[in-house]
Write a structure and sequence with these properties.
The structure is a homodimer of 274-residue chains.
Chain A lengths: L14 H16 L6 H8 L5 H5 L3 H25 L11 H14 L6 H11 L4 H25 L5 H20 L3 H6 L8 H17 L62
Helix pairs in contact in A: 1-2, 1-6, 4-5, 4-7, 5-7, 5-10, 6-8, 8-10
The structure holds a DNA duplex (30 and 30 nucleotides).
Chain lengths: 274, 274
DNA sequence: TCATGATTTACACGTTCGTTTAAATCATAT
DNA sequence: ATATGATTTAAACGAACGTGTAAATCATGA
């Protein structure tokens, strides 16, 4: 009996930590909703009930994971922000401010837990109010300090423009953090956003230019080609070429896929003969 | 009997379309996994089984929804790309190329279905292989045409740099499309990424500058402050200040929250007296 | 050594999920 | 009018979900 006693594979690793590690990895890979507590605990090598014993609920586990993993990032950011170099006129060096903002976010602490970076990027696009509040409470303060530092570095930049460009910056940042693999696919593997130093070496000077570039850039000079598509879709896309599917009558003659488009043809209907 | 006959609220609206509309809205708002077929059908005002009758499965519904909604976007993009203005030397106008790329994505066809834009942004961060393939199959071809047009407009820009900057561009684009509300929160509501024209008026010239700006921007001139956080977290964050929670023995004396950190205190354990 | 509390285990609960089925209903051509 | 096929309906299936609970096990100080 007694299953396997203790295994002693990782002696000092407490159950809590194993759960948090597994949650970080699995939540980042598949999303919070898609991960069941059973696969989580089995992946962590702990008992199912351990989650409720140590955290109370799945949601509480996520909150604990997030606040714990975020703390070093925010702290590092504030440290970097405090030691930003100054221009002769006393203003912060813009590149240093941007790096203080980006480096901790992209590196995710000193550990190899690159997976939390992905989790954060994923949660950043969530529209769930609870998730938004967690992100706000965790990162807004230090983000506001970064924004204030940028404003200090560029006193002539209108506040609204600063916010717009900051929005585009965090877009590029989160998309890099998410590691969607899209640009690897498009570039044939030549571009690797997983390399933090390579990302910073490009993102920092690029957005330093973006922020510095005054509002001089023509507002929207382009006469703009056209604004509506000429495609004549009726109400949604196609008229109604693809009929649903035969309800009864599974005649064997039309066994192959109809022809509608290119469906995955997942054997649309078993239609057992019984 | 016969429940309610037909209701005739929207006479011509077929069941298929009601399902697709509801799926678009709900998937975009809460994510695919988080939406059950029951809330979907009840939101659409159709029977639960209608989804399997018309589409076969939840996954097939998503694929159908995506391909149908994407088609006008891609088509519009290709049309705009075909009528991009040319410089006197015959090269494409970079701003027009960027607008051809961005406008259809941000506008989502001619309809008011801004929700599909959010759905697409959400799926873009998904790491699910099936989802990635859908996105690749749908958008890669037209994206490659955009990349080729940019390369044609900027023949001196190294290919690798082009891909990096395109990566940052689609990051800003997707984050704008996701409408996470973060920049509204940070800017106190002054910045509204939901306004497509306002986004384009800023994003197009900004990234035109980004692409045009040669590799002259100092590679990474910054001596870079420090690269590791000084915070001394052991293994994960905190030593072990917050004890789990009492297992048995729900003594009434310590009824209030322990003090650990600032937990949501969701009544960690009911511990019914029975 | 033993008592005690912290932790882990096995198991079951009620619910909700995606899916399926068979019958009822609708639309329409003859 | 009626037959026929398309569509909708109500009800149920088994599986998997998050959660709860009582007992077994472990660690440790007296």
């Amino acid at each position: 009996m007694a299953t396997v006693r203790k295994q002693a594979s990782t002696p000092g690793a407490a159950t809590r930590e194993r759960i948090l590690d597994a949650a970080r990895d699995l939540f980042a890979e598949h999303g919070v909703q898609a991960v069941s507590l059973r696969e989580l605990t089995s992946h962590a090598g702990v008992n199912l009930a351990a989650i409720h014993y140590h955290f109370g609920s799945k949601e509480a586990l996520l909150a604990e994971l997030f606040s714990r993993s975020s703390q070093p990032i925010v702290q590092w950011r504030l440290e970097l922000l405090a030691k930003v170099r100054r221009e002769p006129d006393g203003r912060p060096v813009l590149e240093d401010v941007l790096e203080a903002f980006l480096r901790p976010a992209l590196s995710s602490g000193r550990r190899q837990n690159a997976t939390f970076v992905r989790l954060r990027a994923r949660l950043a696009l969530e529209r769930n109010e609870a998730t938004r509040r967690i992100l706000r409470d965790t990162f807004d303060e230090s983000s506001q300090e970064v924004i204030a530092a940028i404003a200090e570095a560029l006193p002539d930049l209108p506040e609204l423009e600063l916010y717009w460009r900051f929005h585009f910056l965090i877009g590029s940042m989160f998309y890099t953090m998410a590691d969607s693999g899209r640009i690897q696919s498009l570039s044939g593997g030549k571009c690797d956003p997983g390399n933090v130093e390579e990302v910073l070496a490009r993102l920092v000077p690029i957005f330093a230019n973006v922020f510095r570039e005054g509002c001089n850039a023509a507002p929207v000079a382009a006469p703009s080609p056209l604004r509506e598509p000429t495609v004549e879709t009726n109400a949604a896309g196609e008229p109604s070429p693809a009929k649903p599917r035969k309800a009864k009558l599974n005649e064997a003659k039309s066994g192959a896929a109809k022809s509608s488009a290119a469906k995955p043809s997942k054997t649309r209907r078993p239609a057992r003969t019984s």
